[in-house]
Design brief:
By secondary structure, the protein is α/β, with parallel strands linked by helices. It has helices at about 25-35, 70-80, 90-100, 105-110, 120-125, 125-135, 150-160, 185-195, 255-275, 305-310, 315-325; strands spanning about 5-10, 40-45, 60-65, 85, 110-115, 145, 165-170, 180, 200-205, 210-220, 225-235, 245-250, 275-285, 290-300. The protein folds into 3 domains: about 5-115, Rossmann fold (3-Layer(aba) Sandwich); about 145-205, 2-Layer Sandwich (Dna Ligase, domain 1); about 210-330, D-amino Acid Aminotransferase, Chain A, domain 1 (2-Layer Sandwich), CATH 3.30.470.20. It is built from 11 helices and 14 strands. Helix 1 (about 25-35) packs across helix 11.
């Protein structure tokens, strides 16, 4: 087992917004408790005081401050943590970790990103890198193109044809994205998508509206051991956002062959990404055949992780935090099932 960090900075997810609820508070609270169990000092930063994770008996040191790169840099300078745990703070945590790495702050203070490395976060979040990786490992993706301007959007749709879906990079809960059935709708959705993405990048993709939406919650440790915690099925088909749908775990309409096919693909993806901790993989399955597409991967704890934990009794956030500090899956006992 690698050397355990002495002090870890945990990034919270900030205020509760549409598309994000108490799942990251739940994850952060579990992580702080896991650090205590391992004898590691936890330093928590979150801008939302109305959370359980900011209660005084959860983390060892709590900062209720704005979640900005400048503020986190000041806290790192003062507290000098050995490690940073960004994967429990939702999209906010991931984006901040990327900015801290890009600005050289982590390197300057010798802070190691724990759990999922920055390279894996980039691959999971940057649509272009993600598509390239999936193609390399032979996993199917819908016909698509990554574009940064409205002219490129038009050219892509001429090739792919309607209907299409627009997905902005580095956003939470599908913010700024949407479906387009014609040129008029395309113009509107593309402009809002480009504006919503911090790097002004959107994915223009052939629409799989009406297909089954299946998710797998997967864990991987630093020794490349992988387990699928559970699979989930959205009651509504593709085209209805997960947050607006009802999700059932385990899935109700998959055949064993379909389940094994998607499970194998999920484990293959999590290994190729190099995620250490929890990972959520979303897929679209054609109800009329066994054709499937990988839609996206969250290399972090997500809303689905909280649901999967509740449905299975497997404490994903707690286990992810322990994997982040170097433990292997076989060394971690399940606090719920023993």
């Amino acid at each position: 087992m690698p050397e355990k960090p002495r002090k870890v900075l945990i990034l919270g997810s900030g205020p509760i917004v549409i598309g994000q609820a108490a799942e990251f508070d739940y994850a952060g609270t579990q992580a702080c408790k896991a650090m205590r169990e391992e004898g590691i000092t936890s330093v928590l930063i979150n801008s939302n005081p109305a959370t359980i994770m900011t209660d005084e008996d959860i983390a060892d040191i709590v900062y209720i401050e704005p979640l900005t790169v400048e503020m986190i840099a000041r806290i790192i300078e003062k507290e000098r943590p050995d490690g940073l745990l960004p994967t429990l703070g939702g999209q906010t945590g991931l984006n901040l970790a990327m900015e801290l790495a890009d600005q050289g702050i982590l390197e300057k203070y010798n802070v190691k990103v724990l759990g999922t490395p920055i390279s894996a976060i980039r691959k999971g979040e940057d649509r272009e890198l993600f598509k390239k990786m999936l193609t390399e490992i032979g996993e199917p993706v819908p016909p698509s193109a990554i574009v940064t301007g409205i002219e490129q959007v038009r050219r892509t749709v001429e090739e792919i044809g309607f209907p299409v879906v627009i997905r902005p990079a580095y956003t939470l809960g599908g913010t700024g994205g949407g479906f387009a059935q014609n040129w008029e709708e395309l113009e509107k959705v593309a402009m809002s998508g480009l504006a919503a993405s911090p790097i002004h990048q959107v994915l223009v993709e052939a629409s799989v509206k009406g297909w089954k939406e299946i998710e797998y919650e997967v864990m991987r440790d630093g020794a490349n051991n992988c387990i699928a915690i559970c699979n989930m099925e959205n009651v509504d088909p593709m085209g209805v956002h997960t947050g607006d749908s009802i999700v059932v775990a385990p899935s109700q309409t998959l055949t064993n062959k379909e389940h094994q096919m998607l499970r194998t693909a999920s484990l293959k993806i999590v290994r190729a990404l190099g995620v250490e901790g929890g990972c959520n993989i979303q897929m679209a399955l054609d109800p009329k055949s066994d054709q499937y597409y990988v839609i996206e991967v969250n290399p972090r704890l997500s809303r689905s992780s909280a649901l999967a934990s509740k449905a299975t009794g497997y404490p994903i956030a707690r286990v992810a935090a322990k994997i982040a500090v170097g433990k292997r899956l076989d060394e971690i006992s399940n606090a719920v099932t023993g």
